[in-house]
């Protein structure tokens, strides 16, 4: 019996399970999924959990059930590719024939002094819960700094404004305008929403130091009561320690079949994989689709295609509270209520198909 081990129950490995179960898994293959939590977490919604506009239960989906699927709960301490085993923090070991690593990412602090120690995070459900507790207990008039105006920072700042009208929110953006990689119209829409809702966007910022209750933007000292860091991610340490080449962001360089170039039995999916796109749930799912096809072909001893098809993404969507949003789909910008409804619909469909 071949043993497929999936590390992490994120978007990529959930798509692997969705495609293999219930009836596409070969009779001679069993699966073990290892995750820290006994359910799949909707990471794209952590901002709402932290802001207090979504409950914990709303952003969880049960893992599938199958007679040849074993769920194991724990944290991965080491991936021993030489001996084809995974070592957990409780010193237990799981051997594998094929491995799909989807352990996700953690915050990247860019060597900013104090950033790790004095900021909150939305990169895991555990840390998002801690961020929610801190933000929800702030007294009226407190100042919240959100460092990083990418999609996570924008959604957190807007959702927090909707949750707590009494807070002062400062969103620190390194660029001269919000979302500079996208059309000016989209940037203008997001900026106008922040202006209308009293969220201060600090453009061309560079956070050089973080202290308790103080941010240093260039040389300026800015008092804050809480700081949430959304200014970059990197693969978790277990993945950074994998053998082989990494890119400038420490993501694992893979073959076109999504496995380590020197090990066809170890695949990497999602935020940990070096791909020509920014990490996203959509990207992880599209990559997982190809990984499943490669796995099935190899299990059947079939030839792989000389060239894997290029991954194509449909675009992206973001929310500005519960009523407004923005999207960039098929090179077209969509803003307002329609964009928010689109995002809500995609989330509903995801829960329907996976839950």
Task: Give an account of the 3D structure.
The relative contact order is 0.15. Strand 21 (315-320) and strand 22 (324-329) form a beta hairpin. The protein folds into two domains: 2-36 and 74-105 and 234-299, FAD/NAD(P)-binding domain (3-Layer(bba) Sandwich); 109-231, FAD/NAD(P)-binding domain. The mean pLDDT is 96. 28% of the residues lie in helices and 28% in strands. The protein is built from nine helices and 23 strands. With 355 residues, it is an alpha/beta fold. Helix 1 crosses helix 8. The strands form seven sheets. It has a six-stranded mixed sheet, with no helix packed on it. Strands 13-12-11-17 form a four-stranded parallel sheet. The two termini are 28 Å apart.
Question: What would the keywords be for this entry?
Answer:
FAD, FAD/NAD(P)-binding domain, six-stranded mixed β-sheet, FAD/NAD-bd_sf, 28% strand, flavoprotein, alpha/beta, EC 1.6.5.-, 355 residues, four-stranded parallel β-sheet
């Amino acid at each position: 019996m071949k043993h497929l081990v999936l590390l992490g129950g994120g978007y990529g490995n959930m798509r692997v399970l969705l495609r293999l179960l219930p009836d596409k898994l070969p009779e001679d293959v069993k699966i073990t999924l290892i995750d820290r939590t006994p359910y799949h977490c909707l990471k794209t919604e952590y901002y709402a959990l932290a802001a207090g506009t979504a409950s914990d239960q709303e952003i969880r989906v049960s893992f599938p059930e199958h007679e040849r699927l074993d769920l194991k709960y724990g944290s991965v301490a080491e991936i021993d590719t030489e001996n084809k085993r995974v070592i957990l923090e409780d010193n237990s070991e799981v051997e594998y024939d094929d491995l799909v690593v989807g352990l996700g990412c953690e915050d990247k602090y860019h060597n900013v002094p104090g950033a790790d120690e004095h900021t909150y995070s939305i990169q895991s459900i555990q840390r998002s819960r801690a961020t929610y507790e801190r933000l929800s207990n702030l007294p009226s008039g407190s100042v919240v700094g959100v460092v990083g105006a990418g999609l996570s920072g924008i959604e957190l700042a807007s959702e927090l404004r909707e949750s707590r009208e009494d807070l002062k929110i400062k969103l620190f953006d390194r660029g001269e305008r919000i979302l500079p990689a996208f059309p000016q119209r989209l940037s203008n829409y997001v900026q106008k929403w922040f202006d209308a809702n009293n969220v201060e966007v600090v453009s061309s910022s560079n956070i050089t130091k973080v202290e308790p209750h103080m941010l240093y933007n260039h040389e300026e000292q800015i008092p804050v009561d809480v700081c949430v860091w959304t200014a970059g991610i990197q693969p978790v340490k277990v993945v950074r320690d994998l053998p082989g080449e990494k890119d400038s962001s420490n993501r694992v360089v893979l073959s076109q079949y999504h496995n380590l170039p020197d090990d066809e039995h170890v695949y990497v999916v999602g935020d940990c994989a070096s791909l020509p796109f920014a990490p996203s749930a959509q990207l992880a799912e599209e990559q997982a689709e190809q990984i499943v096809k490669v796995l099935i072909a190899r299990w059947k001893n079939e030839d792989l295609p000389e060239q894997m098809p290029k991954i194509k993404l449909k675009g992206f969507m973001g929310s500005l509270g519960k009523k407004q949003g923005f999207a960039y789909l098929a090179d077209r910008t969509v803003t307002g209520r329609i964009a928010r409804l689109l995002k809500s619909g995609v989330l509903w469909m995801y829960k329907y198909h996976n839950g």
